[in-house]
Design a protein that fits this description.
The chain is of the alpha/beta class and about 280 residues long. It is built from 14 helices and five strands. It has a five-stranded mixed β-sheet with strand order 1-5-3-4-2. A hairpin with a 5-residue loop joins strand 3 and strand 4. It is elongated, with a radius of gyration of 22 Å.
């Protein structure tokens, strides 16, 4: 690590990482290796929004900042390939922005980009860099992208929760990681099949995170419903706002609120629970 230095690499020799969790939702329907320009489009489409919790910047505001500064403050991290190109480990969005600014002929030097080259890095090192930068760091992925990456580490890479925590540098909570993995599994098993060929609404992932909270699942099953029923409630927007999922035990435990929820939605059910004579 002490011998690492910043190098200025030719942008055309840099390959965007198709494993980047930020673009994972866009690539789920793509078979084989996606074109680089498709990844660039996905980076813009799935960059964090202003209202995303923990998101430090939008794609457009980051682009405006880089354009104004005429470069980067933080270098990207890459690993070299045998053919002389480099694959991005951390900094895909910044590379994409450099490419766009070059096409736009914006003032500045966009042909090269500052990078830390990691020729010795192994797969576990890549995981550590991504998790420290985007799971608990200042440039966080969207919740669904986080969950997809954590789920892959847990189910495909066979990493334990404690190993994932180690990669995060101790800045994540064990239960939060467990909830994200469980929520991703539930969303894939019960919500995605309802969508069919349509584009899933990944913002609804937060409902499946709330589903993992204490007593929520138990209350659904106890009331005679299933996880498929819950997914349909989410799909049909009967649970709005999504954080009212945590009120499901109260709603299903009150007959009047339960009827109102099933005939209308959680918002109307909560009005009954807020009445002075509610159980």
């Amino acid at each position: 690590m002490s011998n690492l230095s910043i190098q200025y690499l030719s942008v055309p020799k840099i390959i965007l990482d198709q494993r980047n969790p930020r673009v994972a939702p866009a690539l789920e329907s793509i078979e084989g290796d996606p074109p680089q320009n498709f990844i660039e489009l996905a980076l813009g489409q799935f960059a964090p929004d202003d209202d995303d919790k923990g998101a430090s910047t939008t794609f457009s505001s980051l682009k405006a900042s880089i354009r104004a500064y005429k470069g980067l403050i933080n270098p990207i991290v890459v690993t070299p390939r045998d053919d002389g190109t480099y694959v991005v480990i951390e900094g895909n969005t910044r590379v994409s922005i450099f490419r766009q600014l070059a096409v736009e002929k914006a003032p500045g030097a966009w042909e090269t980009i500052p990078a830390i080259v990691r020729p010795d890095i192994k797969e576990d090192g890549e995981h550590a860099i991504r998790l420290q930068a985007h799971l608990v760091g200042p440039r966080q992925w969207r919740p669904y992208a986080k969950a997809k990456y954590l789920h892959a580490l847990y189910t495909e890479q066979k990493l334990s929760i404690n190993e994932i925590l180690d990669y995060c540098g101790g800045n994540a909570r064990k239960r939060e990681i467990e909830e994200y993995i469980e929520a991703y599994t539930d969303m894939q098993n019960h919500y995605i099949p309802l969508v069919g060929q349509n584009q899933p609404d990944y913002s609804r992932f937060s409902a499946f995170v709330e589903l993992q909270k204490p007593k929520v699942k138990q209350s659904i099953v106890k009331a005679g419903f299933s996880m498929e029923d819950f997914a349909k409630w989410v799909h049909d927007s009967k649970i709005s706002p999504l954080n009212t999922v945590r009120q499901i035990p109260r709603i299903l435990g009150n007959q009047e609120a339960k009827k109102k929820f099933l005939s209308h939605d959680a918002r109307e059910a909560m009005k009954i629970l807020e009445q002075p004579n509610a159980n």
